[in-house]
Amino acid sequence: MKGSIFTLRGWQPADAQSLQQQADNKNISNYLFDRFPYPYTIMDAEKFISDQQGRNPVTNFAIIINNKVAGGIELKPGTDIYRKTASLGYWLGEIFWGRGIMTEAVKRMTSYAFEKFGIIRLQAGVNGNNIASMRVLEKAGFKKEAILKSAIIKNGEILDEHLFALLK
Length: 168
Fold this sequence. Notes:
By secondary structure, the chain is α+β, with helices and mostly antiparallel strands. It has helices spanning 16-23, 26-29, 42-52, 101-117, 131-139, and strands at 7-10, 60-65, 68-77, 85-92, 121-127, 143-154, 157-167.
């Protein structure tokens, strides 16, 4: 999927070095699930990319700028009673923050999700201290539906989770 200055595409083994360089940043990992390691090593990058190989349909995309990884965006389709809902997660290298890249990537991924997966609801949870990510979702058309009080713990701090959603 093409954006104005980026491409969303499946992960490739050659992405490992630029993935590691962008992902190895405490300012990024502070806002993500604990499964996103810090420090982020080349072995972490290689394992992640290897785990993504051969997945069909692709649900986890590299955000590529100038042939290098700038970030990632993932769609997690729901199952069972949540089969018409999917969750969205994303991150962007700090050097790319504040340029509208992620808002555009979220919009592209939203279109892909609704067209490819037949879902009717896309949602994203955001750490209560991640105001920039909340703005990304709002600018992409998502609405805040709830604040889940003291729902998560990150770096030893109890935080609220803000739940955003967009309906087809």
